[in-house]
Structure formats: structure tokens, C-alpha cells
Amino acid sequence: MTVVRLSLTIAATLVCTQMALAAEDFRHTITGEPLKVMEESPAEGRDTPAVKKFLEDGTNLYIENKGCLPKGEEVYLTACSGCHGHVGEGKLGPGLNDAYWTYPKNATDKGLFETIFGGAQGMMGPHGNHLELDETLKLIAWIRHIYTGKTEEAEWLTDEQKKSFKTYTAAHAPESAEAQAEADKKIAEAAEKKEGGDDQCKVSGG
Ligand code: HEC
Question: Which residues contact 184 (CB under 8 A, 6 or more apart)?
């Protein structure tokens, strides 16, 4: 009897853990098919506090953590800027720095995650298989950071976050190649200082 009860308890605990890990249901932006977030993402970076929280309820803890922006920018410049422009101004792919979205769900962090993970149409391929989940959350924080539109139209920010949000200004978007090289150097230096530690980028699961 005790054994049965114990195994039932274990089974129930397992089910609950599974649910807590992936309470959100992630879907492909175009097909609506379920995304295999755990199965298809790189093994590294799947179990950070920020990833756990995000899979649970869609909250991206990195949005409010400026120390994580350099990593997000690094990922953006490596994987996205070639098509979407250096500061999300748009190039081959649409702009990512205003309030207009072809797919309205990208105005939520969950929707943006789904588009990045599973891709959309044509040249917008899936990125979930090569970007670590934790990196993707930092990337999303960076994309929200380069927003140049009106703060009140930033649906993805909570009322509290809107109070402190500062629109990304032209000062951050260098116009000349020299200014760009200078800005890139600063980012590289900042990233180097944090090598190994990443002290500026710490979150705890909420
Ligand atoms: C090879 C070029 C290319 C690369 C690299 C690329 N994209 Fe795209 N992206 C596109 C194109 C083209 C579209 C338009 C597709 C569509 O409308 O379905 C698009 C669409 C999008 C959208 C939808 C925008 C909207 O208005 O709803 C988002 C978000 C996005 N990309 C983010 C990213 C991010 C983040 C990365 C880096 C991880 C990235 N893309 C890398 C070409 C690219």
C-alpha cells in the first residue's frame, strides 16, 4: 500500500515538474505547428533561471537587465543584422525597431521567440536549432532595446517598464562607417571585460 502511494506521489511529482517546465505552448508563426523547443534547441543554455521562467509563463527576465544587453547585441550582430540592419532599421528583412509587425504576435516576447525559433517565410529561416535558448532571450531583450517608436505603443513592455524605458536614439545608431567601427570596438571591449564572469548579467528565477 505504502509502495503504491509512494509511486503515485512520484508519478504526480514528475507530471507537475514537466508542466512547470513547459507551461507555455509554443507554435510556429506560419504553420501554427507546435515547436519542439526542448528537443531542437542546443543542449547548452536550456536550464538557466531565465529560460525556466520564460518556458513557464512567457516572461523574459532579461528585458530589465541592462547587463545582458551586450550579449544580446553580439548575437544580433552575428545572426540577424545582415538581413535586418545594424540597429533593426530593416534591409532585406523588415525593420525590427518600430511598433509595426507583419505578424502581430511579435509584439509579445513569446511571439517574437516563436518567430526566431521556428522562422517565418522565405529567407526568414528557423534559428532555434543553433541559438541557445538563453541566448535567444538575451537577443529578444536587445531587439526590444533598439526600439525607436513611441513608448506607449510598445505593447511588450509592462506599465512599470514603460516608465523607465528610453527610446533608442540616433546617438546609438552611428551614421558613418568610422563611428560604427568605434561603437563596435566599445562593444567588443565591454564583452572582453566580462569574459568568464558575466557579472553584469545575473537574474534569479522569479
Ligand atoms: C537571410 C536573411 C535573414 C536573417 C539572417 C534573419 N532574418 Fe528575420 N526576416 C527575414 C525576412 C526576409 C523576413 C520576412 C519574412 C516574412 O514576412 O515571413 C524576416 C522576418 C522576421 C521577423 C518578423 C517581423 C514582423 O514584422 O513580424 C522577425 C521578428 C525576424 N525576422 C527576426 C529575426 C532575428 C531575430 C534574426 C536573427 C536571429 C533574423 N530575423 C535573421 C530575413 C532574415
Answer: none
Separation of 90 CA from ligand 1 center, angstroms? 9
Q: Can you tell me whether residue 117 is helix, strand or coil?
A: helix
Q: Which atom of ligand 1 is nearest to the CA of 104?
A: 27
Q: Give Cα 165 to chain centroid, integer Å.
A: 17
- Whether the full predicted model's pTM is greater than 0.85, yes or no, is no
Whether 5 maps to a domain, the answer reads no
**Mean pLDDT (the chain, rounded):** 85
C-alpha distances (whole Å) from 189 to each of 73, 92, 185, 197 are: 13, 29, 6, 14
- Is the minimum distance from the CB of 9 to ligand 1 under 6 angstroms? no
Looking at residue 139, which CATH number applies to its domain? Answer: 1.10.760.10
Query: Mean per-residue pLDDT for 182-202?
Result: 59
The finding on whether 110 has its CB within 6 A of some atom of ligand 1 is no
pLDDT value of residue 197: 45
State yes or no: pLDDT of 157 exceeds 90.
Answer: yes
Q: How many domains in the chain?
A: 1
Task: List the domain range (segments joined by +) for residue 56.
Answer: 20-193
Q: pLDDT tens-digit profile of 57-86?
A: 999 999 988 899 999 999 999 999 999 999
The pLDDT, as a whole number, for residue 154 is 96
* C-alpha of residue 2 to centroid of ligand 1, in Å: 55
Task: Identify whether 51 is part of a domain.
Answer: yes
Handedness of CA 28, 22, 76, 159 (dihedral sign): positive
Which of 124, 127, 147 maximizes ligand 1 atoms within 8 Å of its Cβ, making it the mutation to test the pocket?
124
